[in-house]
Amino acid sequence: PWDGAPIVIESHKLVFFTIPKVGSTVLKQLFRRMEGYADYLDDKHPLPHAPKRNGLRYLYDFPPRQADFIMTSPEYARAIFLRDPKERLLSAYLDKGRQGQYIQFHCCETRNSTLNNELDCAHPREHYGPAVSQADMEAPLLSFEDFVSLLVPLCDDPHWRPQASRLDAKYWKYINFVGYMESIESDTKRLLQTIFAWDEFGASGWPNGHIFAGSATVNHKTDSSKRLNEYFTPFIEELSAPILKQDYDLPLWQNITVRTKP
Predict the structure, then answer these.
(1) Rounded distance, CA 178 to CA 52, Å?
(2) At residue 134, does pLDDT exceed 80?
(3) Alpha helices in the chain (DSSP H)
(4) Fewest beta carbons less than 10 Å away: which of 65, 80, 181, 201?
(5) Which is it for the CA torsion 44, 49, 50, 55, positive or negative?
(6) Distance of alpha carbon 192 from alpha carbon 195, whole angstroms
(7) How is 185-215 classified by DSSP, letter by letter?
(8) pLDDT for 53-75, tens place per residue?
C-alpha cells in the first residue's frame, strides 16, 4: 500500500508517517525535493504518491536490524501530522466519496449486496479524472449519511481509515514530533527547522513562496473545515461517533526532540 510504511530521509534522519487527507501530497513533494528530484512539484498521477515511481525510500527498503534502529533510535526524528477527525472524514467524502468511479472501483469488490446496490456496481460510472466531476457533484452515488453509515464501515480505504491505525500501537511511543493539519504551515516549518532543512527546502521554491504558505494547497480542494456545520447534523454526529472515537482517543501531544546538526 502507498502509505503502508513511513518515508525515510536518511540524510536528515527523518522518518515520516504520511496520512491521506493530511497534506500528504505536498509533504511527499517536499521529501522528493529533499532527495534531489528537480520535478518535485509534479503532482500528476502517479506522482508523488506511488512508491515505485516517486523515488522515495520507505522503511521496508532497509534491512530489519537497520529498520528497527531507525524506528527506535533517539538520533531520528519520527514525525506524523494529524487532522481533526471530523474534518478529515468530511474531506474524504467531498474529495473521494462523491467520485462515483473511485468508490465503485475500490468498494464494489467488498461483495456486500447492500453496498453494491447503493453503489450501483452493475453500472460502472465513467472516470473523469482525479477531481470530482460535475456529474458526481450533482448526483453523487452516496449521501454523506450513507457514506458514514454504510461505506466507511464496509469498505476500507486509506482516505477514511482511522489515523490511529497508521502505525502499530507499540510504535506510537517512539513518535517524537506531532504536527497538525490546522497549523500545518507553522508545524512544517518547525519540523524542518528541527532537522536543519528549512532554509534549503522549505523557505522558498514553492508556488506561494515557502511551503504551505497560506495553506492554500491543502484547503482549496474541499474546503471541508468551513462546511462541517452543513454536513454534521446532530444525527450525523451521533452516527459518526463510533467511527471517530479511535482517533479522538489518540493523545494529541507535541514533543520535539532538538538534535545537533547532522
Answers:
(1) 27
(2) no
(3) 24-34, 51-54, 64-72, 85-92, 100-107, 113-118, 134-138, 144-146, 152-154, 184-194, 216-219, 228-231, 234-248
(4) 65
(5) positive
(6) 5
(7) HHHHHHHHHHTT-IIIIISSSBTTBSTTGGG
(8) 999 999 999 999 999 999 999 99
Q: Are 2 and 49 in contact (CB under 8 A)?
A: yes
The cell 506524523 sits on which residue?
Answer: 80
The predicted model scores a pTM of 0.88
Cα–Cα distance for residue pair 220/260, rounded to 1 Å: 37
* Residues paired with residue 78 on neighbouring β-strands, in sequence order: 15
Query: Side chain identity at 22, as an amino acid letter?
Result: V
- Strand, coil or helix: 102: helix
Pick from 238, 187, 228, 229: which is nearest to 88 by CA?
228
Q: Give the integer Cα–Cα distance in Å for 55 and 28.
A: 10
Which grid cell is 88?
Answer: 478529515
